[in-house]
């Protein structure tokens, strides 16, 4: 349980060694580079925007090529492939990919161009399909659509709004006020909304024909072809076949290039690390022959880095302690059991410079409370064994995912232990199976008690666990005050609250309210009853007088003290929140018992056995999933609201070192060989 102490390190080195030193720092991943703002005539910053842009463009192009390959030739992946993590590559692979980068870049560009070609051909296909669709009403036409007639006669095709028959169209034309006698219309086809017609007329009647056509809402079709429509459709269908063949050929070429998919991933990571390096270069102050690196790193790693740099390079290194005003990053360090819960803590916020790392204490209560909420030994064992197998099978998975799985593995152990204490093994499955199929009354008794049979007893224990949890949070607050040597705040804001709250609890225990919950009456001796009253009144008066001690006005001080006492209601609501331990624990057990009862409905028969297995598997899978989710959500809530609310503010800044931030491949192992060679060459 610790927030690693950070030091500020200043490195001055020769500019000729800049590349090697920065690559070494990137490999180590232990220094967060701080951008220097001070500049003068000697030391300036180098503008690396061009280099960064070039490398980031190559990253973007490679990502684009990978997305194209995934769209057209999806990579075969197992269901658990997301757990495999980054693939570790050898030093030979690394050197090979760097040497072949121009060739791979060419393949990347080819894939992008092929995608553009496919898009163009798909667009051409769609245009042909649209044109074929537009030509469908004209397939009965036996002349080209752009035919304009003979020397003396005119001809055109078009569309009239509305659906007409030959007779309807003749009557419509005759109903016009003026229409040329030479006008002749023939229907090619008609649908629900439009009629497709040809128009023949004498050319000297053109003006009258146009006037008549306007009255009929006549319009030209959207497509005009130089051949008869059937021939035009055939040509477009042939063109579509050509497009499809071209697309298949391009996809076949892509499929061959997909064999280089992992090479694309490796080169993408290479360019990403190069871009990150130049971003750091742009932050450094540099002269003609020297450069400076300034940043934060864990104090315990300083000596090792200093020794390595001084051994390999001509450098001057200065280490100093950060000032109070500096925004120092935070790095947490915990063992595997405690560190599994780091994600829960950091999702609330990193501890600030005045706080301790609460991960270890949080981990203990997290596992403890989670186990109570799920509280079934079989569910806990399945959680544990499932997470354990996955962690062993995929050792290279991302650390964030590994921590999450370890957290659930330890939660599974806690659930297993609480299930044994409460006697839950898939609910009462052992008893139900014994009675239904073997006609024997068997079962594994609870080592402690069964919450379903004694819910009020369980509620009392849950509230007791809640008191311990809340008081621990208040105790951590007191510890941090003592660490800052603020004794007055420790006494007034912690000790007085302990006295007041413990007094209230002692006054509550002998009352009828507690007796109704516990099922028995507890009688204190007179001295203990008097002590509880003294503690309650003394703590209350102390809080009233001292909570607002920073206010100079005595009236305001009392009002602030009274307002602070109002927090008693907050303590009560926080304590009642722990009743959810009972609620979720009972929900798991009761639903499990209902599932077992339903599964056994068909009795002792072959059909009954099959029915039991099906209902048992489906029911308990659902029950485990929904209650596991509930336990996870409500355990987080008890940590964030009730526990952290007593002492934890967060607000710290995460330590983000300069490192090889790769996506697909673990470059560190192979790059290490590079630096070994560098050191041998001096």
Mean pLDDT level: 91
Beta-strand portion reads 5-15%
Looking at the structure, what is the overall shape? extended
Gyration radius from CA atoms, angstroms: 40 Å
- SSE class: alpha+beta
What is the β-strand count?
A: 16
| Main beta sheet strand tally, sense and closure | 6 strands, antiparallel
Helix content: 55-70%
Structure overview:
The structure is a single chain. With 682 residues, the chain is α+β, with helices and mostly antiparallel strands. The protein is 61% helix and 10% strand. The chain has helices spanning 18-28, 49-72, 91-99, 101-135, 166-174, 206-215, 229-257, 261-281, 299-312, 336-339, 342-348, 359-374, 377-393, 399-422, 429-438, 455-483, 487-508, 512-518, 526-546, 554-565, 567-576, 579-599, 606-643, 668-681, and strands at 2-3, 6-14, 32-33, 44-45, 87-88, 153-161, 184-190, 194-202, 218-219, 285-286, 290-298, 315-320, 329-330, 332-333, 653-654, 665-666. The strands form five sheets. Strands 2, 3, 4, 10, 11 and 12 form a six-stranded antiparallel beta sheet that branches. It has a four-stranded antiparallel beta sheet with strand order 7-8-6-9, with helices on one face. It is extended. The two termini are 40 Å apart.
List keywords for this structure.
single chain, 682 residues, alpha+beta, six-stranded antiparallel sheet, four-stranded antiparallel sheet, 24 helices, 61% helix, extended
Please specify the SSE layout and strand pairing.
Blueprint lengths: L1 E2 L2 E9 L3 H11 L3 E2 L10 E2 L3 H24 L14 E2 L2 H9 L1 H35 L17 E9 L4 H9 L9 E7 L3 E9 L3 H10 L2 E2 L9 H29 L3 H21 L3 E2 L3 E9 H14 L2 E6 L8 E2 L1 E2 L2 H4 L2 H7 L10 H16 L2 H17 L5 H24 L6 H10 L16 H29 L3 H22 L3 H7 L7 H21 L7 H12 L1 H10 L2 H21 L6 H38 L9 E2 L10 E2 L1 H14 L1
Parallel strand pairs: 5-16, 13-15
Antiparallel strand pairs: 1-14, 2-11, 2-12, 3-11, 4-10, 6-8, 6-9, 7-8, 10-11
Helix pairs in contact: 1-24, 2-4, 2-8, 3-24, 4-7, 12-14, 12-22, 12-23, 13-14, 16-17, 16-22, 17-19, 19-20, 22-23
């Amino acid at each position: 349980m610790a927030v690693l102490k950070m030091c500020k390190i200043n490195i001055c080195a020769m500019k000729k060694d800049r590349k090697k030193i920065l690559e070494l720092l990137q490999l180590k991943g232990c220094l967060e580079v701080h951008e220097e703002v001070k500049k003068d005539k000697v030391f300036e910053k180098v503008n690396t925007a061009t280099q960064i842009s070039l490398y980031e463009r190559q990253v973007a192009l490679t990502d684009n090529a990978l997305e194209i390959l995934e769209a057209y030739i999806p990579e075969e992946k197992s269901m658990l492939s997301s757990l495999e993590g980054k693939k570790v590559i050898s030093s030979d692979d690394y050197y090979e990919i760097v040497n072949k980068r121009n060739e791979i870049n060419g393949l990347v560009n080819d894939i992008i161009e092929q995608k553009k070609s496919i898009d163009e051909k798909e667009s051409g296909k769609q245009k042909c399909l649209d044109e074929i669709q537009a030509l469908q009403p004209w397939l009965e036409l036996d002349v080209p659509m752009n035919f304009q007639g003979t020397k003396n006669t005119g001809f055109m095709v078009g569309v009239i709004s509305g659906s007409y028959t030959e007779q309807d169209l003749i009557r419509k034309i005759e109903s016009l006020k003026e229409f040329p006698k030479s006008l002749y219309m023939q229907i090619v086809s008609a649908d629900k909304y439009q009629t497709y017609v040809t128009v023949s007329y004498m050319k000297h009647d053109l003006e009258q024909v146009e006037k008549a056509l306007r009255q009929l809402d006549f319009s030209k079709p959207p497509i005009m072809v130089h051949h008869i429509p059937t021939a035009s459709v055939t040509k477009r269908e042939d063109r579509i076949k050509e497009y499809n063949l071209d697309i298949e050929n391009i996809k076949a070429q892509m499929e061959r290039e997909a064999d280089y998919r992992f090479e694309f991933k490796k080169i993408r990571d290479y360019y990403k690390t190069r871009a990150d390096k130049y971003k750091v270069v742009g932050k450094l102050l540099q002269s003609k022959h020297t450069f400076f690196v300034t940043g934060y790193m864990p104090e315990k790693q300083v000596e090792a880095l200093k020794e390595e740099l001084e051994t390999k390079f001509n450098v001057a290194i200065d280490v100093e302690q950060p000032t109070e005003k500096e925004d120092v990053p935070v790095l947490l360090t915990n063992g595997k059991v405690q560190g599994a819960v780091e994600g829960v803590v950091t999702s609330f916020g990193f501890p600030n410079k005045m706080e301790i790392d609460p991960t270890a204490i949080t981990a203990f209560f997290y596992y403890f409370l989670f186990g109570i909420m799920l509280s079934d030994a079989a569910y806990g064992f399945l959680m544990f064994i499932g997470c354990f197998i996955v962690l062993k099978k995929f050792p290279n998975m991302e650390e964030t995912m590994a921590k999450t799985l370890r957290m659930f593995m330890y939660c599974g152990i806690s659930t297993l232990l609480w299930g044994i204490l409460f006697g839950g093994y898939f609910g009462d499955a052992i008893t139900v199976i014994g009675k239904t199929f073997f006609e024997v009354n068997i079962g594994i008794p609870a080592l402690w008690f069964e919450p379903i049979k004694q819910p009020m007893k369980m509620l009392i224990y849950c509230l007791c666990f809640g008191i311990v949890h809340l008081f621990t949070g208040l105790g951590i607050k007191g510890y941090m005050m003592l660490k800052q040597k603020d004794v007055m705040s420790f006494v007034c804001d912690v000790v007085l609250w302990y006295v007041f709250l413990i007094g209230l609890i002692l006054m509550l225990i002998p009352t009828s309210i507690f007796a109704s919950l516990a099922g028995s009456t507890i009688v204190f001796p007179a001295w203990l009853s008097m002590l509880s009253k003294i503690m309650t009144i003394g703590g209350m008066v102390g809080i009233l007088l001292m909570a607002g001690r920073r206010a100079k006005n005595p009236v305001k001080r009392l009002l602030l003290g009274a307002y602070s006492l109002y927090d008693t209601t907050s303590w009560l609501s926080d304590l009642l929140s722990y009743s959810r331990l009972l609620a979720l624990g009972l929900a798991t057990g009761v639903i499990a018992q209902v599932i077992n009862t339903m599964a056994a409905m068909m009795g002792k028969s072959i059909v009954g056995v099959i029915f039991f297995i099906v209902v048992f598997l489906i029911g308990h899978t659902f029950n485990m999933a929904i209650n596991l989710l509930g336990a996870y959500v409500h355990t987080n809530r008890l940590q964030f609201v009730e526990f952290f609310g007593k002492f934890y503010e967060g607000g710290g800044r995460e330590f983000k070192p300069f490192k090889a931030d790769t996506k697909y491949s673990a470059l560190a192992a192979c790059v290490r060989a590079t630096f070994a060679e560098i050191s041998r060459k001096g």
